[in-house]
Design brief:
Two copies of one chain form a homodimer. Chain A is an alpha/beta fold and 335 residues long. Chain A is built from twelve helices and twelve strands. Chain A has a six-stranded parallel beta sheet, sandwiched between helices. Chain A has a four-stranded parallel beta sheet with strand order 7-6-8-9. Chain A binds a DNA duplex (16 and 16 nucleotides) through residues 9-11, 19-23, 25-26, 29, 32-34, 37, 52-53, 55-62.
Chain lengths: 335, 335
DNA sequence: ATGAAAGCGCTAACAG
DNA sequence: CTGTTAGCGCTTTCAT
């Protein structure tokens, strides 16, 4: 370890071949120099096990072939899946991924994004937690950025994948309404940190229209975060007849809580989610949710960024429509 | 975007303050220079929104504060969770994470690890797919590496978190044996790519001891990967009475397949997993599995690396013991 | 206490 | 086709 047999450099190849570093640099990239030189250089490079130093390249400027992916919270199963899908999609374009996780803290997002940019990522894919704080103008000016379901104040975007939250929320609330539910608890994350999330606004508006009594409850992300809260909500005297979780991960925690309390879903209470994680059809009972195709989302987001990097400044915005998926976790309101 | 208002550099601060870059460099790190200078420099730095360029630092040498995390496949839910846990743990130590995903391809692992090293990560956390190929000696010599459940040929390790696969497999097979199962299909991933995985060896040995008829079946990772295969296995004339999945994600796909075929678990067939993903207690039926505490694993792995980086070359090896978790997906073998 | 200069590995003008 | 030179932003001798 301390021995540090350093990695081979372009300079060594230059010495070995008797060429200048410049010539080697070109040869390695197959430019300008003669075919014979290219071959000779390649041979030495292979033999030395040379590969260009990405850090030096990055410092010099130019593309790094790496994209920064920033997600709101990897504690959320759906976002885990999204991150994987995005990464996979990037790979099909020959791009590497650096994944960063704001871990539920909106204040952290800008700092993390800045750090990714400082690492010279060629572009940024951001799935923000909520209305992120800070001024993204400077950052997005220098680093092409595509957002996934969220806004970045001041940002100049290379692309945008929006989710039609209004329709999604509307369909779900109408579904619950049609089942006779009138008092509904809505579990959402990061409410305090970013109080004006469009999803919650949509909930309030649609609830008003339908005449529903919706209480929005702040909730930690994820399974373990939502369970204790769910217990609290479930044990109230005036327990709601349905719980609408703004992420399936939250719903999982609620299902867990229901089980602990001996509550039958959906007989005693309905529980629904909002992103349709792949496992939602396998949990007990299968979770009613709203699907936003992860594949389409990932493909669109990556496509926008790749197009942009290729110089295409076309129309880079798409709205993903929700697909309501009714399963067994929602049923008639108990009378 | 092309306008490129570059990020502030140390040089700009030097000009603003009338100092030399050297002095500024020291001042920013609070070294050598006078308190007054430090303050003056800080003020200008803050005002300019300066932060050190990590790329330049990396090129120069020295620590980058970033750790590379390499996992075998992010398509696997458990590994997603592990990655998150590790990342979180690193963060408590003030370390940043670059996450890379071999996506089920053992041949890719060494290349990805090399790339992370080239990015000047301070250390590497590797959860390999199976007996990885290639020679890790050179890499691990230069970059401190901790493995999580797996071996790296030739590697000189800064630490090792091993899983006691033998005991884990043994307990599960004995559990199935005691329920009367004799013909068991074992679904594993990456069998072809790395035929001698210790887990599978353990399966063969323990099966022989118990007199079980265990067939090891190659299986793509994850939910969607295992479902078609499961269907194939389930529709055989001589269907096994139990399916032992070497990862819970695989088991989820099998459960899905069973449902499609109208097979009741565990009445018609038992299905068990092997890593106890947090959702395994929530699926239908709750999955019998073997738990390797993710938190302990993450904490140990990160702890080893941090210790090592701090100069502590103590004993950096731990074996995580399995905890058998019997739930409802395993029952008596159908007669 | 501060500054000048070298260098990390690579690429890109600009010669020849 | 190939070499010289400069420079990306930072840290670190070595002087002053």
């Amino acid at each position: 370890m301390a021995a540090t047999p350093k990695r081979p450099t372009i300079k060594q190849i230059a010495e070995e071949t008797g060429l200048s570093v410049t010539a080697v640099s070109y040869a390695l990239r197959g430019e300008r120099v003669s075919a014979a030189t290219i071959e000779r250089v390649q041979a030495v490079a292979d033999q030395l096990g040379y590969s260009a130093d990405p850090v030096a390249r990055a410092l010099r400027g130019g593309r790094t072939g790496t994209i920064g992916v920033l997600v709101g919270s990897l504690a959320d199963f759906w976002q885990q899946t999204l991150a994987h899908a995005v990464q996979r999609e990037l790979r099909t374009h020959g791009l590497h991924t650096i994944l960063a996780d704001a871990d539920g803290d909106p204040a952290e997002e800008l700092a993390l994004a800045a750090r990714l940019a400082a690492q010279r990522v060629d572009g940024l894919l951001v799935a923000p937690i909520g209305p992120a704080g800070g001024d993204w103008a400077k950052l997005t000016e220098r680093t092409p950025t595509v957002t996934i379901s969220g806004r970045l104040p001041g940002a100049e975007l290379a692309g945008e994948v929006a989710f039609d939250q209004t329709t999604g929320v509307g369909e779900m609330l109408r579904h619950l309404h049609s089942l006779g539910h009138r008092r509904i608890a809505v579990l959402s994350w990061a409410v305090e940190a970013s109080p004006d999330r469009p999803t919650e606004r949509a909930v309030r508006e649609q609830a008003a229209t339908l005449g529903l009594d919706c209480e929005i409850v702040q909730c930690a992300y994820s399974l373990d975060g939502s369970r204790p809260l769910a217990l609290e909500v479930l044990e109230r005297a005036d327990r709601p007849t349905a719980i609408f979780c703004l992420s399936d991960s939250i719903a999982y925690g609620v299902l867990h809580g229901c089980r602990e309390l001996g509550l039958q879903v959906p007989r005693d209470i309905s529980v629904v989610g909002f992103d349709d994680h792949p496992l939602s059809r396998l949990v007990d009972p299968p979770l009613t949710s709203v699907n936003w195709s992860i594949d389409r989302t990932a493909r669109a987001a990556v496509g926008f960024l790749v197009d942009y990097l290729a110089g295409d400044r076309g129309d880079h915005r798409v709205v993903i429509a929700p697909t309501m998926v009714v399963r067994d976790s929602s049923g008639p309101a108990p009378s």
